[in-house]
Amino acid sequence: MALTANLIGDRQTFVTHLECSLTGERYEADRLHGLSQAGRPLLVRYDIEALGKALPRDVLEGRPTDLWSWRELLPVRHTGSIVSLGEIETPLVPIPASGGANVLVKDEGRLPTGSFKARGLVMAVAMAKELGVTRIAMPTNGNAGAALAAYATRAGIETVVLCPDDTPEINVREIAAQGARVHRVNGLIDECGAIVGKGAAEGLWFDFSTLKEPYRIEGKKTMGLELAAQLGWRLPKAIFYPTGGGTGLIGMWKAFDELEQLGWIGSERPKMFAVQASGCAPIVRAFEAGEEHAERWENAHTVAAGIRVPKAVGDFLILRAVRESGGRAIAVEEEALQRATAESALQDGVLLCPEGGATLAAWREAVAQGWVEAGEKAVLFNCATGLKYPLPDRSATLDKDNLPDLARL
Amino acid sequence: MALTANLIGDRQTFVTHLECSLTGERYEADRLHGLSQAGRPLLVRYDIEALGKALPRDVLEGRPTDLWSWRELLPVRHTGSIVSLGEIETPLVPIPASGGANVLVKDEGRLPTGSFKARGLVMAVAMAKELGVTRIAMPTNGNAGAALAAYATRAGIETVVLCPDDTPEINVREIAAQGARVHRVNGLIDECGAIVGKGAAEGLWFDFSTLKEPYRIEGKKTMGLELAAQLGWRLPKAIFYPTGGGTGLIGMWKAFDELEQLGWIGSERPKMFAVQASGCAPIVRAFEAGEEHAERWENAHTVAAGIRVPKAVGDFLILRAVRESGGRAIAVEEEALQRATAESALQDGVLLCPEGGATLAAWREAVAQGWVEAGEKAVLFNCATGLKYPLPDRSATLDKDNLPDLARL
């Protein structure tokens, strides 16, 4: 189904088991799982020692650089389970004018369906296919639903997607175009999630909500793996991550641990900054209050739909990673994120999505507060293409039959 | 300005001169040029023999795979001239359900600003910077203007962009967001071009119209270079290319010649299919009439804005390449291109742009007519992300306070 050399033939796999992220309770691999008994996300565990012996780092470095170059560190057993749409390594693009000399945007909008959600969903759909799932449902703020639809369609799996009724129009339409049945719901993403959960309890479908199945986190983990390889196995000083459900932040943190166990990186870690909007900042509130869990944020609102997540099931994992790293959770005002988005395009030619703009605003805030130094290498995650979001109309008109002085154009 | 190893330090360059594509008249390299004296595009020539000695193929294969891995085959002399936004190698994505087992989509929507125009403009802007240009104007149907704006902004070059007043809204807005001054004109792209030409004659700006400066073609050439490398130096049997100005088709044809001179590929060539819409098919009309040049197409119309080009300055180069290759120019009906676009998304999870959909429709027609065999390897160029184009709304609504039987979703 795909051309990369990483998808020609099976490769050795090293999954040993899954475990509850809260209690450490052990679960069997190669079986369908949702949350743990304790109602928490399951984490996939590997025999890292055997993996390290089987896969020298230079072998990995000789492979095509796409997501599937990491197969030994991923849960899929059989190549035939994988449906690929071309999961390329995303570039690191400097934004010297609107950011700083060492500020790099990891442009995740280059992935299939235009967002980082492709990483999680390509993995989760492959595992669903491997484990015999035939019907999936999911709540989404947009991009996750689009990625699910594309991959599930390709895998021959039926999908039902529920989204808040003010989800960006383009997202709703692309989800349907790619073969899912889409319903707009008069509520936020967690309310859509409750309906998905109800249907799953009735046996109607498998629940693909963020972190409610164990494999999206493994796909998102590749952001951390890829970043390490791209930067020559030296992690940046800081990572700014737009945080809704937080799968990517949790996934990167797990990736760094696995890379250290392999001996491919040392014990240094970037400061992890969980970026939220001031209109929906449950993680920031919990971080500042010193809490381990985050309460639901009422009346959530922000133009950055992807981080409008009032309640995250992996809240304690996000908070733990942020704190262990010496980073912070940062809330940015709407005006600051919109200004950052506009300036990145206008000054550096890089059209960020609003969530990506939020990370630039947060980086600016972190520099202002002295949480990071302006010259330190920082990576901002632009989680989706800026083309999915509305832009202002700044064009003029010109009458070809009645031209003005062209010097004034 | 960028992280790829291909942009660390200068590399040897091999440009010897430029020549008129019609008369062969010779022009000096490293000077600013527009069209030739004969009013035709200029082609860049290299010392291929010296290049072959300096750059063994395995050295090239060891480099990061982005566009700048081809630097010895490109015109830019100095690394400092390059403004990069992350010009990654675009993936080849199979579409087995809507196309066939050997039909691959080259997904150019993954490039900066979401289209293949980035290839031409990153090169042309680098050369403009190298040669001291400070102000550029360009007519566009959308994507070229967006790419120009992003790169020129980053290079510190002022830009004026003129587009037909029915250019897709998202394009007009992204061009302005990325720092260009955009004007909507009550005319088609060649009428916008005439205004740009008038301003250039008045000395107001440098004219960046398709093929009117010599370097966009060198950037687009990388589509052919990249394709050859990705397919293990064996070209596909057929290439379907959405053809407006035709720079990419001309560029690929040039690339294949240069690769053969290097001894990296043999003399076999793909059949080149120039794909147009039946509402704007000047190249098809000229092809079928056995003409060397194509007359302007009056009352041009098609939803595929990128190929709504009534008159191409490189018409004879397109026609020559198509004929030499044993390919054809094919016009597809609106309904066929829209059906192909819809089916690729719905059946394969690949959201093509309308111009990309046109190539799938043309491939289907070519199979039906026996011009290609269904099982032969064919590459379709999806020139831009499908996310830039309007999609139908196929969503339903759901009331969270009054849920229906979920089994019916």
At a glance:
The structure is a homodimer of 409-residue chains. The first copy, chain A, has 409 residues and is an alpha/beta fold.
Task: Find the structural class of chain A using helix and strand composition.
Answer: alpha/beta
CATH domain topology of the domain at 216-388 in chain A: Rossmann fold
Please describe the biggest sheet of chain A, giving its number of strands, its sense, and whether it closes into a barrel: 6 strands, mixed
Q: Could you give the distance between the termini of chain A?
A: 50 Å
**Series of H and E elements of chain A:** EEEHHEEHEHEHEHEHEHEHHEHHEE
Q: In one word, what is the shape of chain A?
A: globular
Count of β-strands of chain A: 14
GO molecular function, one term (chains A, B): threonine synthase activity
EC number (chains A, B): 4.2.3.1
Cofactor (chains A, B): pyridoxal 5'-phosphate
Organism (chains A, B): Qipengyuania benthica
Walkthrough of the structure:
The structure is a homodimer of 409-residue chains. Among the domains of chain A are: 117-207, Rossmann fold, CATH 3.40.50; 216-388, 3-Layer(aba) Sandwich (Rossmann fold). In chain A, the strands form 3 sheets. Chain A has a 6-stranded mixed β-sheet, with helices on both faces. In chain A, strands 8-7-6-9 form a 4-stranded parallel β-sheet, with helices on both faces. In chain A, β10 (238-242), α8 and β11 (271-277) form a beta-alpha-beta unit. Chain A is globular and about 70 Å long. Chain A has 12 helices and 14 strands. Helices cover 35% and strands 16% of the residues of chain A. β14 of chain A pairs parallel with β8 of chain B, so a sheet runs across the interface.
